[in-house]
Amino acid sequence: MAFLLRRLLGVVPTLFGVVVAAFVLTRLLPGDPAVFFANSVTADAATIEAVRQKLGLDLPLWQQFLIYTGQLLRGDLGNSIGSGQPVAVDLLRLLPASAELTLVAFALAVLVAVPLGIAAALRPGSIIDHACRLLSTAGVSLPTFVTGLLLIYIFYYQLGTAPEPIGRIDPFAIPPPAVTGFLLIDTLLAGDSEGFVAAARQIVLPAVTMALFALAPLARMTRASMLGVLGSEFIRTARANGLRRRKIIFSYALRNALLPIVTTLGMVFSNMLGANVLVERVFAWPGVGSYALDSLIALDYAPVQGFMLLMATIFVLVNLVIDLAYAVIDPRTGLFQHA
Amino acid sequence: MREKLSLLRYVLAGNPVTLLALVMLAVLLGCAVLGPSLVPYDPIATNTSVALQAPSAAHWFGTDQLGRDVFSRVVVAARLDLSIAFAAVLLSMAIGSVLGAAMGYFRGWLDTAASRATDVLMAFPLFVLAMAMVAALGNSVSSVVYATAVINLPFYIRLARAETSIRRDMGYIEAARVGGSGHARILRVFLLPNILPSLVVQASVNLGWAVLNTAGLSFIGLGVRAPTPEWGIMVAEGAQFIVSGRWWIAAFPGAALMLAVFCFNLLGDGLRDIVDPRSRT
């Protein structure tokens, strides 16, 4: 418990740094927000000055920062000029779409990469091993936006098996009542099997695109780590003692090989949060990435700031979870004794 | 030197993939250096009478919506993409290795402060950070270079710091200190050359990321602007034609991009084998 508290406290300086970085970066953004808020480029100087005072843009930077942090603590991320809504509301509305995509892709990547890596490590030099190597080298070289387009070309244009890449749901379909915001779950809750299939068909291509990109480092690390553990003496002993193969692989080797794999999981997840922006763009997926990108191009900085903070916060939390997972997987890391 | 060369030959003989990567790198660099004078068409000259033609003998990679030759554009774009990547990686390697080595060598407040700053940098998904930085610094090629350099910085800082930390108390550093070398000389003459090989391996892998990053940024409309030939922009322009089956506009620049990244990744692996044979995976 003390460890948990200390680890949580350790997050505070990083998050503070994140807030500072997001604040400074977005204050540097070109374009005068006061002109935007005055609703006209030709507004006279007095109007702009009034708006500037109203927005607090005439104050010194440190005062602006204090006000900004105060707002943050109250959960106020400012207002989006584009949608006219509070940024926090927009982000919460769009987050499920991104989260659904990322989680499906993540699950897909783990389900393929970890067994593949294990299989490759069990038979080094075999066909599976070469396939694993090819996949992991090609996977890191594939730009997500190119893979996405390629998949669209093959499965939508050539084969016609995939639906048009226009977002999460057919624009004429009636969305299920929002409970979790995850269409795959909501349609099931509403007992709408047709809707579930439609939503699943929409998510397959973007999820595969992201999974391909996430697969590579994961498969590679699983293979390397398993290979290292399988070569060690306690595995040889276990084998010599005639333990079952399944038991050796899963409860002896995998458990010991898990630590670097979990580290890679965290890294992959962070990369996926970034890749989201590109994949959402290619598939017209209405998530937070598209929202941030549209705002960025429209010089609407509050949403961009909110998006960066959201991503960084998610990432810091993911790292926290991973640190806790370390302690569960391998009590020797001693995280519970001293942070 | 002779020994190094024979080692190189030995490693390459046992690892044809690295040889392949070197050949690919030579082709890419050739395109970057000679490309503009080799290509058959002007990469930005539009000719709407031949717009959207499929690949043919006259236009190897077809033509885009404005009748520009995709092959010429792909080849010419190599120069811009590779220069951005090289500039960014060199910049971040230069700053990161010096800063990281100083952090590992002196420790103290510099180490604490810079480590914290690195943690903050790493807390952002790197592509998102690059996006925001390019937007903040102004939509230009130099911003892309700076943004790419900054997001790669933490890797060099951490690597140089770790490598210096394990060497700072070693005998030969102690000997240099006793011999009257100042801190600057120890860092420059004894530490940096020793940590350089691992930094170069990192740089090779980072070059691939830098190319991806640059293309990703221009794909979403940041950094390089049309009509400049650049792989990311070309993919973005071709994206709208994919759903109508005109694959060549996006596919060829995409393939060039993949090839470049693939080449740098293979090269990084090959270099790692030479520098540190134990870490072969």
Describe this structure in words.
The complex is a heterodimer of chains A (339) and B (281). With 339 residues, chain A is mostly helical. In chain A, 74% of the residues lie in helices and 0% in strands. Chain A has helices spanning 2-28, 33-37, 45-55, 61-73, 87-122, 127-141, 144-158, 183-189, 193-230, 233-240, 245-282, 288-297, 301-329. In chain A, helix 5 crosses helix 9 (193-230), helix 9 packs across helix 11 (245-282) and helix 11 (245-282) packs antiparallel against helix 13. Chain A is globular. By secondary structure, chain B is mainly alpha-helical. The longest helix of chain B has 37 residues, at 70-106. The chains are: A mainly alpha (339), B mainly alpha (281). At the A-B interface, helix 1, helix 6, helix 7, helix 9 and helix 11 of A face helix 4, helix 5, helix 8, helix 9 and helix 10 of B.
Q: Work out the number of β strands of chain B.
A: 0
Largest sheet of chain B: none
Number of helices of chain B: 10
Contiguous runs where pLDDT drops below 50 for at least 5 residues of chain B:
none
Runs of chain A with pLDDT <50, length 5+? none
> Could you give the count of β-strands of chain A?
0
Helix content of chain B: over 70%
Instruction: Give the mean pLDDT of chain B.
Output: 84
Q: What fraction strand of chain B?
A: under 5%
Shape assignment of chain B: elongated
Cα-based radius of gyration of chain A, to the nearest Å: 24 Å
Largest sheet of chain A: none
Strand content of chain A: under 5%
Gap between N and C termini of chain B: 27 Å
Q: Alpha-carbon distance between the termini of chain A?
A: 11 Å
Structural class of chain A: mainly alpha
In helices, the fraction of residues of chain A equals: over 70%
Q: So what's the oligomer here?
A: heterodimer
* Number of helical elements of chain A: 13
What secondary-structure arrangement, pairings included, does this model have?
The complex is a heterodimer of chains A (339) and B (281).
Chain A: H1 2-28, H2 33-37, H3 45-55, H4 61-73, H5 87-122, H6 127-141, H7 144-158, H8 183-189, H9 193-230, H10 233-240, H11 245-282, H12 288-297, H13 301-329
Helix pairs in contact in A: 1-13, 5-6, 5-9, 5-11, 5-13, 6-9, 7-9, 7-11, 8-9, 9-11, 11-12, 11-13, 12-13
Chain B: H1 2-14, H2 16-38, H3 70-106, H4 108-123, H5 126-137, H6 141-167, H7 171-178, H8 183-219, H9 231-242, H10 248-275
